[in-house]
Amino acid sequence: xxxxxxxxxxxDDETLGCGGTILKHKKNGDEIYWLIITxxxxxxxxxxxxxxxxxxxxxxxxxxxxxxxxxxxxxxxxAISLDTINFNELITKxxxxxxxxxxxxxxxxxxxxxxxxxxxxxQAVYACTKNFRKSYIRRILMYETxxxxxxxxxxxxxxxxxxxxTDITDFMEKKLEIMSVYENDVMTDNLPRSLxxxxxxxxxxxxxxxxxxxxxxxxxxxxx
Length: 224
What we know:
By secondary structure, the chain is an alpha/beta fold. The chain has a single domain (3-219), classed as LmbE-like (Rossmann fold), CATH 3.40.50.10320. Helix content is 37%, strand content 21%. It has six helices and seven strands; from the N terminus they run βαβαβαβαββααβ. Strand 4 (105-109), helix 4 and strand 5 (139-143) form a beta-alpha-beta unit. Helix 3 (87-101) crosses helix 4 (116-127). The longest helix is centred in the N-terminal third of the chain and has 18 residues, at 50-67. The two termini are 16 Å apart.
């Protein structure tokens, strides 16, 4: 049994990027944890309605229950505004959350996604997971997020090149069911976060390893 932490800048990133893998870890008997970096707030510069904030809180509760997370940690930094936050404060709170769990594996957002919250989250998490400070971490993987990873400029430094693939064939329908909880985030067909696009990406990734559906990751740290 391992402790696995899934880190998402915004809720729904975890499901888009590794929903099937979360379910697979749970079935395998691993302890699974969810760290959410941001949350919508009526008080932040862009502002969200009270109704939207309440809806998001209900979605988090439902999704956490469907996955079976042992613990969900919410840092509640303002969504779409991480570039306005003191970076040291962000690192400190992420570090505290990781120290609370002591995960052996971390699934982390892709470093070159087009969304600034994603890039800042990656930088902050990676800054506080150095091996000489957290020797209990054995493995760190980056996941892709539809509408963010593939939308980065087509430059070599932004390329997502997966080298780890997880067969999620048995969990594909459950992943789509959980994604549907985020009813305002699911897009219509032919758009990146549509259920059809999520299924298509999983099918494409599955073809890489000869299975029906898979999720793809970049292994960026592993300690034998």
